[in-house]
Amino acid sequence: MPPRLRDGDLVGVIAPAGPILPDRLRAGLDRLAPHLHLRVPEGVTTSTGYLAGSDERRAGELDAMLRDPDVRAIILARGGYGIARILPMLDPAALRADPKPIVGFSDGTALLAWAARAGVRGIHGPVIGQLGELPDEDVAAMVRLLRDPAPLGRLPWPLAPIGAPLAAPREGRLVGGNLTLWANLIGTPWQIESAGAIALFEEVGEKPYEVDRDLTHLVLAGGLAGAAAALIGELTRCHDPAHPDDGTAAFAAVDDRLRHLALPGLRGAPVGHGRRNVALPWGARAVLHPDGALELLEAAVTS
């Protein structure tokens, strides 16, 4: 676990995936400025098609933040695509030598998995470009995770059952994030460890059959082997215009696949690409309770 942020600590902002529009960057920075001291490199708004510059630029920017002793945490500017391309260029020894939490989600799932393989806990939470649209409580939740070494405990979320029945509490490490990224990491050195885990899934813009396809691929490839339970966040815009539904088809696909695995779960976590994205400690021990509660037993940072 990396050390907590203290007053005056610097937080680096990086763009390791897709490009961020300057106005979205500014809106997100404005939300964090009252709480954190931010370092924003000049190249963070670089745009080369669907990438925030070359692989070398993006990897170099991240590497500089990892090696800078004044930078005590790192937050992604946005997701999109591109992080998997630079993972082989990153040196995990730099993060192990000076642990600092990395905050991100979506394409950032790959970077959180890389950090976990390096032995350092990250935070599945909002990117800068999303912060301008989130409620104050989600901004505060991310800042708290960076500063407070106390576990979050039971979260006041109205979660509903999905998959196999949750007859008893299930405890495990909370890992995962974007479903597409989890599936794409299968067979790589940064494949997410599922044994004994509570598998967190969220998704955006995938049709219900595509959600089914990724989960089926995970099952067939052993990517969910030994998982203790599943926690399902937002499935944003996961519908098929050719087959209109009331928004439940994607969740029905998840329910079917989880039942096939005899894996219990809860759905409704305010996590992902929707109106909410509450930060959670990636890899922390957590419990799913039969009464529909998520309990965090560990924090993201240590004192």
Note the main attributes of this structure.
6-stranded mixed β-sheet; alpha/beta; 303 residues; 2 domains; Glucose Oxidase, domain 1; 14 strands; Rossmann fold
What would your notes on this structure say?
With 303 residues, the chain is an alpha/beta fold. It folds into two domains: 10-147, Murein tetrapeptidase LD-carboxypeptidase, N-terminal domain (Rossmann fold, 3-Layer(aba) Sandwich), CATH 3.40.50.10740; 153-296, LD-carboxypeptidase A C-terminal domain-like (Glucose Oxidase, domain 1). It has helices at residues 22-32, 55-67, 83-86, 92-97, 109-117, 128-131, 136-147, 179-184, 208-220, 249-260; strands at 10-14, 37-39, 71-76, 102-104, 122-124, 153-155, 160-163, 170-178, 197-204, 229-236, 264-267, 280-282, 285-288, 294-296. Strand 8, helix 8 and strand 9 form a beta-alpha-beta unit. The chain is globular. The mean pLDDT is 97.
In short:
The chain is of the alpha/beta class. It is about 30% helix and about 20% strand.
- Going by CATH, what is the homologous superfamily of the largest domain? LD-carboxypeptidase A C-terminal domain-like
Helix content: 25-40%
Q: Give the class from helix and strand content and strand pairing.
A: alpha/beta
Query: SSE order, as H and E?
Result: EHEHEHHEHEHHEEEHEHEHEEEE
Task: Quote the distance from N terminus to C terminus.
Answer: 9 Å
Q: Any idea what the CATH architecture of the largest domain is? A: 3-Layer(bba) Sandwich
Radius of gyration: 18 Å
| Largest pleated sheet | 8 strands, mixed
- Which whole number gives the mean pLDDT? 97
Based on Cα principal axes, name the global outline.
globular
Name the strands of the widest sheet in spatial order: 6-14-13-8-9-10-11-7
**Count of extended strands:** 14
